[in-house]
Amino acid sequence: MSLLSSANVRMMGLESNALFHPTMKEIFMVSYNFFNSFFEGKFRQNQTITPRRLSGGDIHEVFSFAVGDESYVIKVNQNMPEDVFLKEADGLKALRETGVVNVPRVLEVDEWEGTQYLLLEYISKGAGMKASFGSELARMHRASNERFGWHSDNYIGSLEQLNPFTATWAEFFVESRLIPCVQKLRDNGSLGSGETRVFASLESRIEYLFPSEQPALLHGDLWSGNALVDERGSTWLIDPAVYFGHREMDLGMMRLFGGFSQDVFEAYSGEYPLEGGFEERVKLAQLYPILVHAVLFGGHYIAEARGIAKRYA
């Protein structure tokens, strides 16, 4: 007997939700069984469980389950490597342990019938990010390490991210950020051999372009979609691609797609001022995420990456 039939709960919202096509229903039902198995014995018989498919699941399917006054989030891994949620949980744990930023609790990372799941605390969305997030992020960036990198490779979006511990930021940025992306673009035909020369010219200048700073704990993929605002205006960080790097990388990413007010950046500067000239360097700090988008999506991101490389080479 399936957990669904034995649980004797009422499922609300599934049949009426037009987002659930047949394949999605199958994914959902397996997710529900995992959810019910994890919480077996906690909920009353005949208790209503309200499922909802959440937006933003570009890589994974994401569902919320409301049970009475409690809500949870389940992420479902369909197409990524099996360790993707272990890496994500590791990053969330590292950010949470700083004690200075809000991060959802990781409740479980597990597998059910060959599918990987990540079970998280649910954050009710609100609006109006408080400027105090800037100072919280600045304090998080003060968490440091002797070397740049991370104790394991992880993922930025669906792309594997290399994080070998490295003595200098210039070497790490070139060897673990620029070269892997440029090589992928050359391999898939997006960049010709002549076009890659401008990136080679840039590589030799990186150590002179970024100011010297200690390694900072980074979120690593800090666009506004990965900074949830709750009903009180507090910001919660999700979907990290953590490593110890140059803190201007997070700030450049925040500027790339917008969504953060000037008050947030001013609060950051008040807590942990940047070296002068950041406005002239911000495009350089955005080069890596643009290269990632070029690898994943192609299109105008390729030309944009070339333009940035030419600007600083």
UniProtKB/TrEMBL annotation:
Which InterPro entries does the protein's record reference?
Answer: Fructo-/Ketosamine-3-kinase, Kinase-like_dom_sf
Q: Which Gene3D superfamilies match?
A: 3.90.1200.10, Phosphorylase Kinase, domain 1
Output the Gene Ontology terms for molecular function: kinase activity
Q: Which UniProt key words apply to this protein?
A: Kinase, Transferase
Which parts form a coiled-coil structure per UniProt?
none
This protein's record includes keyword Acetylation: no
Top-level division of the source organism's lineage: Bacteria
Q: Which family does it belong to?
A: Belongs to the fructosamine kinase family.
Name listed for the protein in its UniProt record: Fructosamine kinase family protein
Source organism: Phaeocystidibacter luteus
